[in-house]
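User: I'm new to structure prediction. If I give you an amino acid sequence, what do you actually give back? Let's try with this one:
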Amino acid sequence: MYTICYVSSARVNITEDELTDLFGITEKNNIGKNITGILLYESGKFLQVLEGEETVLKNLYEKIEADSRHNNIFVILNQKCKRRIFEKYASRFSIVKSKEELQTIEIYLNQIEDSPNLKYVKGLLEPFLL
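Assistant: Good question. You get back a string of structure tokens that encode the predicted 3D arrangement of the chain. For your 130 residues, that looks like this:
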């Protein structure tokens, strides 16, 4: 099992319809490739967590990097993981608001608790966790 997590900035203001289309395509593509995770959007920022087979995720991430809809991509995690954390999410559109969703993000972040950048990473994620 493998995981990639990144944050990025939208290049332009994205309309509600564009977001709906983007998240629908993301969900359809990821389910077809047995990829789980979440894709969040808030105030011009994206956060995506992907979980799945390593080769599949690395190929997908190359496409994500080339996507002109966003820039300033910062990779938080790109590593093997013990298990899927976001099985129930299946990369659907979500603005994290519930306590349960916050706890799931916390569980995910605990995978990098030994990282000297954890405090910085949590700061990056804070806008999504309000």
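You can read the tokens as a compact description of the fold. Here is one thing that stands out. The domain at 2-129 is CATH 3.30.70.100 (Alpha-Beta Plaits).
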